[in-house]
Design brief:
Length: 229
């Protein structure tokens, strides 16, 4: 078996990729790895707190490794912190990094290049799978996930807080990727076959943030979020 760490986002693609990675029996997954915003102790975009991440990892039964990153810090500082983390993984005889990406070639190449520089192989358990079949399989296998973020230019705020089920799929507009691979939505998985028990959480407030669109500060793109506790 190949010793690996898993790049964990807390959402459905990560959950399915981990499910398939364990099903293949090819990997010994030593750690779930997540980068969080230092100033908020949350994953960017998913907006999931480190406390909820720890509850997920405990229910999954795989140790959690967290890299806290200051978004305002220089790029060199982030690279240095990542290098140190990769060295810690290699000291555990970890040889592969697993990702939940589906089909974005440019993103895959960037991940492969970054891992190669660290002497670690990047692997993608879900790569090339049909997205519609994958999401229906996610539901069929008994995974439970709640939407925590949507891109307001594609989905309206009513999608925030919805459970991912067949009704959710039916209501997605035709211009949205069914798995949200282009950032249309993000989610938090709280139950399913990779969990020994459901993850407890409470639903908090709904809120939004506006970001410059295409790096043009005169144009704003609104994202809606759901706070989970």
């Amino acid at each position: 078996m190949i010793n690996a760490y898993f790049n964990w986002s807390s959402g459905k693609d990560s959950a399915m990729a981990l499910y398939y990675a364990e099903k293949y029996g090819k990997y010994d997954i030593r750690s779930l790895f997540t980068i969080i915003k230092k100033e908020e102790s949350k994953i960017a975009m998913h907006e999931i707190s480190i406390d909820l991440l720890r509850r997920q990892a405990d229910a999954i039964g795989i140790p959690l490794s967290v890299l806290e990153y200051d978004l305002a810090a220089p790029e060199e500082e982030f690279r240095f912190a990542m290098n140190r983390q990769m060295e810690r993984f290699k000291n555990q005889n970890i040889a592969a990094a697993l990702f939940g990406d589906l089909y974005l070639e440019e993103l895959r190449k960037r991940r492969e290049d970054n891992c190669r520089l660290q002497g670690i192989r990047a692997e993608f358990p879900l790569w090339g799978m049909d997205t519609r079949e994958l999401l229906y399989e996610f539901i069929k296998q008994g995974f439970k996930s709640i939407v925590t973020c949507v891109d307001g230019s594609v989905l309206d705020e009513t999608f925030v807080g919805r459970i991912i089920d067949e009704s959710f799929i039916h209501d997605l507009p035709p211009n949205a990727d069914i798995c949200g691979e282009n950032g249309e939505y993000h989610s938090f998985v709280f139950d399913g076959p990779i969990f020994s028990k459901p993850v407890d959480f409470e639903i908090g407030r709904k809120y939004y943030r506006d970001y410059p669109k295409d790096d043009d500060i005169s144009k704003q793109n609104r994202y809606w979020y759901l706070e989970l506790n």
